[in-house]
User: Which sequence fits this backbone?
């Protein structure tokens, strides 16, 4: 297998977990003769390099430039294209985050490369890397392959690969990568960002009580919150609840929110759309409460409670304290 | 500014709540296992385009690659209020987003270009949401992904409200640009796409939809533009879940369940 390049995404001064998982995948896919190279790009990101070496990178390309202070596709794409050449990469892996998916598709389009977003699996194959993704309501696994020679770009979904345990014995010196020519003043410019700070840690939660549009109103949330408190659980939500403004975005679970694997997941008034299920279906035990006996959430639930959450949830809370 | 807006739309498999795999043993789609529908996010893009028409008098053209199968997405776009439609004659089944974008970009150029090109993000069947990025590259313009709404349009610029992990960012682009709409609309969302108008249905039922050959769209051999091919499809075995129903009226049963799940059973 050829060399593998990993894009190390840095958000708010911290490495994205997904980039570490990509390094794990890269190590597995590069095999004996292949090198794992990481691109570290930003305004001041050099302090992340040791973590990348420790997680399995053989080389770290460090591209520091004021134009990379905040993500916009133009300069980041330029940095990634330069890194693909410098690493002689046959495969480029990025986390399937907002930044990763945007950068992967823009870079692949610029390079004329094969690209697979949100891959659930990756393997080394005969004619190049084989990326696979669950589609058709997660009933079908589609395998993709490049149609021509050249690098393949892919983003890996959260959970597709485990992040390797850091090995502090692995060290190295990052190699500078210049952003040349200076990026053309792109026509795209972020005017302002309206993002919340994370207040819940859903990823590490052992128990999650999640709420969907079935809760009906912000007031209905109080019942669900009481159950979460009685269980010592974190509160999760569907996109419907977040879009309605009942809970902030950091509570969202699913394709565009967190992927969670708690021991216990209690879904209250959640229909179970595939974009939600993909983020929670690997929970140890799933309990679902829904008035609709045919709600798709029941297909992944171990315990099926058909009923109105406004009566069932308080009953559960009360049974817990009894 | 009035402006020219092109919206690229497609017909896709309807994969909502499939009860079982649509594949046969050989990994091919079973004939008749799936119906098709208007790609839902393309419908959102169409609605966003029509709002630019309402607010700024933009001229909206819908572009699609391939003949209709069950749903004629171009005629549907006419029924909802686009000013013109343009079809590229090619079989989309064998093409990836790179090849579709090459054809659509050629058609957009043929039609005189656009200030904004809108498309959806998600594709419900295979979900490789790459059309926007390839369109931007093929047209040589900036692309913005995951756009929820177009906040401003005019004076050669647009401001897109873009969904990011913990909220939104507001991105200004110079026109022309490609905006891939990634909004997930809820049932009673105020941005819900308008439905077809009876009057337009009558008027547009027989309207001629101009078609371009792949040559005329600048890609005589669209298959040559394919970058990512499908190497195979297989059914994901259904997860065997021991599921039991608990009577919500039965407090003892509920209590037993709580005890079991807290022990991790
Ligand atoms: C590209 C894309 C990305 C997306 N990303 C995500 C994501 O990350 N996370 C996510 O969650 N969604 C996501 N979605 C949205 C997803 O498709 C669904 O729209 C959403 O998950 C629905 O949320 P819900 O179950 O809360 O609401 P609904 O689908 O409206 O379901 C409400 C449920 O509550 C039940 N109910 C009603 N009243 C009661 C009651 N009194 N007691 C009990 N039950 C009741 C109803 O029977 C129904 O099943 C995405 C969509 C798209 C297109
Ligand atoms: N625009 C489309 N309309 C309807 N079906 C499609 C469309 N694109 C792809 N398909 C079908 O989905 C399957 C997978 O193709 P694709 O997603 O193009 O790789 C093929 O069998 C196509 O027929």
Assistant:
């Amino acid at each position: 297998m050829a060399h593998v390049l990993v894009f190390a995404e840095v958000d708010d001064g911290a490495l994205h977990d997904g980039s570490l998982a990509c390094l794990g995948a890269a190590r597995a896919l590069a095999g004996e003769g292949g090198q794992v190279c990481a691109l570290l790009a930003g305004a001041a990101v050099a302090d992340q390099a040791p973590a990348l070496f420790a997680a399995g990178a053989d080389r770290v390309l460090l591209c520091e430039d004021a134009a990379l202070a905040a993500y916009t596709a133009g300069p980041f794409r330029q940095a990634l294209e330069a890194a693909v050449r410098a690493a002689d990469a046959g495969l480029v892996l990025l986390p399937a985050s907002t930044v990763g998916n945007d950068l992967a598709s823009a870079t692949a389009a610029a390079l004329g490369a094969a690209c697979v977003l949100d891959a659930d699996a990756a393997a080394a194959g005969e004619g190049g890397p084989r990326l696979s993704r669950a589609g058709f309501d997660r009933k079908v696994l589609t395998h993709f392959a490049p149609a021509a020679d050249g690098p393949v770009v892919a983003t890996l979904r959260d959970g597709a690969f485990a992040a390797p345990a850091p090995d502090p014995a692995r060290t190295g010196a990052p190699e500078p990568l210049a952003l040349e020519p200076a990026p053309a003043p792109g026509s795209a410019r972020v005017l302002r960002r309206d993002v919340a700070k994370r207040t819940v840690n859903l990823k590490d939660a052992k128990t999650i009580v999640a709420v969907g549009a079935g809760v009906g109103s912000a007031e209905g949330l109080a019942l669900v919150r009481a159950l979460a408190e009685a269980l010592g659980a974190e509160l999760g939500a569907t996109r419907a609840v977040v879009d309605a403004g009942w809970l902030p975005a950091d509570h969202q679970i699913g394709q565009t929110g967190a992927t969670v694997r708690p021991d216990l997941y209690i879904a209250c008034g959640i229909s179970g759309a595939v974009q939600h299920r993909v983020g929670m279906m690997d929970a140890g035990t799933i309990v679902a409460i829904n008035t609709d006996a045919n709600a798709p959430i029941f297909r992944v639930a171990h315990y099926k409670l058909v009923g109105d959450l406004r009566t069932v949830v308080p009953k559960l809370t009360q049974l817990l304290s009894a | 500014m009035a402006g020219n807006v092109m919206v690229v739309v497609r017909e896709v498999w309807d994969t909502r709540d499939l009860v079982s795999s649509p594949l046969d043993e050989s990994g091919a789609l079973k004939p008749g296992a799936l119906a098709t529908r208007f790609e839902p996010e393309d419908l959102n893009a169409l609605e966003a385009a029509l709002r630019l028409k309402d607010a700024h008098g933009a001229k909206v053209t819908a572009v699609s690659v391939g003949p209709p199968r069950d749903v004629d997405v171009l005629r549907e776009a006419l029924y909802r209020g686009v000013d013109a439609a343009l079809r590229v004659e090619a079989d989309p089944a064998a093409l990836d987003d790179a090849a579709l974008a090459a054809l659509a970009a050629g058609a957009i150029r043929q039609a005189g270009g656009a200030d904004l090109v809108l498309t959806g993000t998600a594709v419900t069947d295979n979900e490789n949401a790459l059309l926007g990025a390839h369109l931007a590259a093929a047209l040589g313009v900036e692309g913005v992904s995951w756009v929820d709404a177009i906040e401003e349009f005019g004076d050669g610029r647009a401001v897109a409200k873009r969904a990011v992990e913990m909220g939104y960012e507001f991105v200004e682009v110079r026109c022309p640009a490609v905006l891939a709409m990634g909004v997930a609309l809820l049932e009673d969302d105020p941005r819900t796409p308008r439905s077809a108008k009876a009057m337009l249905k009558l008027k547009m039922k027989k309207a001629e939809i101009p078609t371009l050959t792949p040559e005329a769209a600048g890609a005589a051999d669209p298959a040559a533009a394919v970058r990512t091919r499908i190497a195979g499809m297989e059914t994901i075995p259904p997860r065997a879940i021991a599921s039991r129903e608990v009577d919500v009226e039965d407090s003892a049963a509920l209590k037993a369940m709580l005890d079991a799940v807290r022990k991790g059973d």
Q: What stands out?
A: The helical segments of chain A are 17-30, 49-54, 73-87, 98-111, 221-231, 239-243, 274-277, 309-321. Chain A has a mean pLDDT of 93. Chain A touches chain B through 86 residues (CB under 8 Å).
